Amino acid sequence: MLTDIGRRLDEHSELINKELENIKKNQSEMKNTILKMKNSLEGLNSRIEATEQVIELDKRLEEITQGEQKKEKRQSKNSLRECGDNIKHTNIHIIGVPEGEERDKGAENLFEEIMAENFPNLRKEIDIQVQEAQRAPNKRSRKRPTPRHIIIKMSKIKERILKAARERQQVT
Questions:
Q1: pLDDT, tens digit, for every residue of 76-86?
Q2: Which domain holds residue 74?
Q3: Helical H segments across 88-157, by residue range
C-alpha cells in the first residue's frame, strides 16, 4: 500500500509538473501576445498623434489662406477700380456745374480752370489735351432742376487725374 501511495504520488507529481510546464508555456505565450498588443497600441497612438498634427496644420493653413484671400480681395477691388477707370475710356464727368456756365467760357476752358484750381502741380507736370467737351443728356427728372454733367473726353491722362483726385479726396 505504501508503494501504491508512493506510485500515485509520483504520478500526481508528474501530472503537476506537466501542468506547471503547460502553465509556464501559456504564460510566455500570453506575455508575447501582450507585447504584440502593446506595440500595436503604440503604433495606433502615434498614428492618432500624427493625424491630430495634420488636422492642426490644416486649420493653420485655412487661417492663412483666408487671410491671403482677404488681402487678394482688397487688391482686386483696387485693380477693379483701376480697370473700371480704364474701361470708361478717357471720359471724365464734371458734376454740379450750373447750366449755361459752359456757354460763357466754353466747356474746355471750364475744365482747365477746375484743373488749375484743384490740381495745380498736375497741370504743370503734364499737358492735358481735351478732345471734346459737352453736356450729358438729362437722365433725371425734368421737373427737378439739377444741372447736367459735363463730359470731358481726353486723350490719355485720365488715370493720373483720378489718382490725384483720390489722394486729395475732395475736389471743388
A1: 777 766 665 55
A2: 1-87
A3: 101-105, 107-118, 120-125
